[in-house]
């Protein structure tokens, strides 16, 4: 490892610090919404907190984690130094400056627009410029990943790109496509309004542009976790990856089907037709397939490990797995949360059924469980797996790592399961204080408190996570394993793979076709029908 | 490792077929609900100028609330604005087809009606419309469910569903909550 | 090793079956009873 060590440390620490702050804010927010009186509570502090919590988890934790882990994979999976490390550090600096700009603007109460922006509400321009810098940083990362893979392929003609890097670059390509929507919304609508250059804006257009980004972005977040499933978990369990080809196909399917589905976030919106909503629902059903494939492929990979350890019968291999290893434990817990979170997601995307849950706590439950649960627990596992190779020390306490993972799992269930029920009972979103005098709302109170307890458990787990990482600095045993040893071998390692599973030219063409089909008219319609514009509503009082 | 490559490919293809089958069952159930039970998202794509809707046309204040038209159609018109609904209470009959129409002069809002499938976003520039039949009587909560600014938490309305016999329009065809 | 992937298949089928069953239960007992909207 030449340059990745410092880059990965820098990026992951920014990610985890933002994450810890977000946890504290999240607990306070749940306290505010509960029947228990919370301190510092005003509408302004609450919605600034929600904006900060969303920005920290959805934009900072994720982008910095993806970038940092990407640099690690680029050097360790390809066994070569990262090209142009100076650009990686420039990107890091841009990302940090952008984050600080956004944070300061939120903390001074000039950006209570939530991480989803909600135009025509308009915040201080510095909030949006801060996020633009974070996205620009991520674009530099994308280019570096593409260059790294390109260099390796030229040095290794005809050989398959190692799966971990193939998946990382698939993610980079997908991210470049993903950011087009929000970039267009910011560049042409939101930032001109924030600068005072426009007094009106077409809200239907901005919501549709944002929806382009809003679903695909969650795949940007989850691909590192799936990289761990395919390339690290089989190794950690003592097995083999059942199918390298299936792994490549999974990441390709995510690339093509994560983008043309954003309208499923607008199913209750009046400005899009049933025809296009239904088309994108059908495409959303297809994007569930790579996850269903993953459950089988990783299950088979673990089955190999379990049977090698003596497990017998249809399910005996499960108990035989080395659950004391944090990566294995995290995977088991992740898959349990994936089942529940996936169930919630299927309900959300089911066209007319969305009316049952839209903007209720059911939605909040879904994304905390699937992202905060399944994806983030694997972020922890990845950190625990690579930290020995980054610090040069062996893990001081696997027991504390396991405790932290269990606390995260338990806290997540205790927090999100009540939210599912509350959502079906009609509890709606983004509320600073509920009127518990109303009898319908009063019945929700006890469940809100249960959920709050779940949040407190999560905060404890998050703090333990940071403690576990810091403990490496005082650990005494040196790390014995090389980074390459973390990666799994396939049952039948391919000597060659078809060009379509070693590069992205065909898939880029397919994405273009699908996006024109799915988003072409839904966006073009705003330039055809004369949709009236709404007045800009500033939320930064200073102006 | 004694696992044949063809066996791996075959098992993956078999599982892929099953996965697609499962997903197809869900899609068929969705289509069934849409076509047979008439449950579809609210997608009427009807524009309205947010800046003038309070001055002329359908959403001027005297025209808001529930009205029965000459042909018997029951429509309730509501304006969503920072941070209240106008009117804050509407009356509708159970077991009859009704139409709810919403517009906003300012920012994004949204509503749900507790215990029902009535749910829609309210986007400035567009009229949101939901056709439904209420099956249970009582006072239902209709909060604003989309963040619309600092006063969002307090924004809420009531949908009073009454037995059809108690639904009595006045001489102009209007029914309001105060009339009780 | 000849058992592989029977165990994975059983696990995947069981969990996906539960997923589908859960979805159908909500569809039949919560969603459809809440009535028509269009």
Explain this structure to me?
The complex is a heterotrimer of chains A (543), B (180) and C (38). Chain A is an all-alpha fold and 543 residues long. Chain A has helices spanning 4-33, 43-76, 85-107, 125-155, 163-194, 203-231, 233-237, 244-257, 274-287, 289-308, 316-319, 326-348, 354-357, 361-391, 398-424, 439-442, 445-471, 505-528; strands at 121-122, 200-201, 534-535, 537-538. Chain B has two domains: 1-40; 46-179, Cupredoxins -  blue copper proteins (Immunoglobulin-like, Sandwich), CATH 2.60.40. Chain B is built from one helix and twelve strands; from the N terminus they run αββββββββββββ. In chain B, the strands form three sheets. In chain B, strands 1, 2, 3, 4, 6, 9 and 12 form a seven-stranded mixed beta sheet that branches. In chain B, strands 5-11-10 form a three-stranded mixed beta sheet, with no helix packed on it. In chain B, β7 (109-112) and β8 form a beta hairpin. The longest helix of chain B is centred in the N-terminal third of the chain and has 31 residues, at 5-35. The radius of gyration of chain B is 22 Å and the shape is elongated. The model of chain C has no long low-confidence stretch (mean pLDDT 94). Helices cover 68% and strands 0% of the residues of chain C. Chains in contact: A-B, A-C, B-C. The interface between A and B is large, with 76 and 65 residues.
Defining traits:
A: mainly alpha; Cytochrome C Oxidase, Chain A; 18 helices; globular; C: 0% strand; rod-shaped
Task: Please identify the oligomeric state.
Answer: heterotrimer
Mean pLDDT of chain C: 94
H/E order of the elements of chain A? HHHEHHEHHHHHHHHHHHHHEE
The profile of the biggest β sheet of chain A is: 2 strands, parallel
Give the strand order, joined by hyphens, for the main sheet of chain A: 1-4
Q: What's the CATH H-level superfamily name of chain A?
A: Cytochrome c oxidase-like, subunit I domain
Distance between the termini of chain C: 54 Å
Overall 3D form of chain A = globular
């Amino acid at each position: 490892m030449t340059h990745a060590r410092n880059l990965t440390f820098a990026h992951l620490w920014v990610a985890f610090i933002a994450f810890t702050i977000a946890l504290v804010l999240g607990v306070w927010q749940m306290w505010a919404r509960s029947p228990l009186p919370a301190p510092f509570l005003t509408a302004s502090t609450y919605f600034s907190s929600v904006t900060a919590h969303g920005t920290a988890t959805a934009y900072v934790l994720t982008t910095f984690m993806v970038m940092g882990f990407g640099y690690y994979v680029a050097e360790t999976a390809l066994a070569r130094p990262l090209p142009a490390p100076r650009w990686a550090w420039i990107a890091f600096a841009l990302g940090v400056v952008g984050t600080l700009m956004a944070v300061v603007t939120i903390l001074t109460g000039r950006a209570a627009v939530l991480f989803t922006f909600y135009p025509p509400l308009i915040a201080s321009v510095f909030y949006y410029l801060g996020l633009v810098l974070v996205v620009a940083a991520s674009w530099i990362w994308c280019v570096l990943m593409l260059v790294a893979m390109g260099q390796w392929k030229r040095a290794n003609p005809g050989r398959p790109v190692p799966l971990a890097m193939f998946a990382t670059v698939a993610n980079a390509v997908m991210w470049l496509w993903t950011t087009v929507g929000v970039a267009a919304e910011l560049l042409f609508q939101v930032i001109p309004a924030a600068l005072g250059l426009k007094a009106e804006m077409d809200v239907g257009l901005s919501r549709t542009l944002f929806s382009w980004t809003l679903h695909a972005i969650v795949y940007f977040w989850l691909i590192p976790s799936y990289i761990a499933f395919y390339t690290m978990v089989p190794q950690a369990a003592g097995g083999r990856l059942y199918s390298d080809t299936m792994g490549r196909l999974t990441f390709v399917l995510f690339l093509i089907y994560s983008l043309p589905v954003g309208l499923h976030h607008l199913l209750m919106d009046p400005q899009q037709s049933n025809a296009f909503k239904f088309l994108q629902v059908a495409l959303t059903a297809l994007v569930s397939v790579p996850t269903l494939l993953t459950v089988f492929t990783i299950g088979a990979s673990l089955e190999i490990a379990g049977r090698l350890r003596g497990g017998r019968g249809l399910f005996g291999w499960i108990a035989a797995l080395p659950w004391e290893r944090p990566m294995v434990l995290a995977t088991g817990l992740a898959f349990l949360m994936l089942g529940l979170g996936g169930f919630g997601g299927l309900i959300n995307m089911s066209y007319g059924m969305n009316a049952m849950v839209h903007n209720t706590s059911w939605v909040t439950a879904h994304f905390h469980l699937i992202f905060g649960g399944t994806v983030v627990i694997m972020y922890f596992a990845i950190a625990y797996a690579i930290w020995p190779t980054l610090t040069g020390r062996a893990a001081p306490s696997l027991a504390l790592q396991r405790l932290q993972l269990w606390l995260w799992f338990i806290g997540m269930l205790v927090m999100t399961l009540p939210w599912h029920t509350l959502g079906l009972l009609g509890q709606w979103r983004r509320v600073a204080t509920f009127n518990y005098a109303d009898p319908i709302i009063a019945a929700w109170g006890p469940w809100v408190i249960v959920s709050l307890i779940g949040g407190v458990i999560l905060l404890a787990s998050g703090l333990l996570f940071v403690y576990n990482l810091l403990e490496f600095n005082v650990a005494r045993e040196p790390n014995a394993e090389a980074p390459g040893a973390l990666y799994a071998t396939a049952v039948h390692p391919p000597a060659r793979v078809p060009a379509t599973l070693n590069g992205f030219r065909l898939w880029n063409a397919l994405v273009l076709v699908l996006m024109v089909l799915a988003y072409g008219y839904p966006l073009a319609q705003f330039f055809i029908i004369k949709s009236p514009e709404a007045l800009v509503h500033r939320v930064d009082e200073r102006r | 490792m004694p696992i044949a490559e063809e066996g791996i490919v075959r098992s993956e293809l078999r599982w892929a077929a099953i996965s697609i089958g499962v997903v197809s069952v869900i899609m068929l159930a969705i289509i069934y609900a849409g076509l047979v039970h008439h449950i579809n998202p609210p997608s009427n794509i009807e524009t309205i100028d947010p800046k003038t809707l309070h001055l002329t046309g359908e959403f001027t204040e005297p025209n808001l609330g529930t009205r029965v038209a000459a042909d018997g159609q029951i429509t309730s018109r509501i304006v969503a604005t920072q941070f209240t609904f106008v009117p804050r209470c509407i009356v509708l009959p159970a077991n009859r087809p009704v139409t709810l129409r919403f517009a906003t002069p300012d920012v994004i809002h949204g509503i749900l009606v507790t215990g029902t499938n009535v749910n829609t976003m309210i986007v400035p520039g567009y009229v949101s419309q939901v056709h439904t039949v209420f099956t249970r009587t009582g006072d239902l909560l209709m909060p604003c469910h989309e963040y619309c600014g600092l006063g969002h938490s307090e924004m809420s309305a009531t949908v009073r569903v009454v037995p059809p016999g108690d639904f009595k329009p006045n001489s102009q065809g209007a029914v309001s909550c105060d009339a009780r | 090793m000849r058992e592989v992937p029977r165990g994975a298949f059983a696990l995947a089928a069981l969990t996906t079956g539960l997923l589908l069953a859960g979805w159908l239960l909500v569809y039949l007992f919560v969603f459809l009873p809440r009535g028509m909207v269009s």
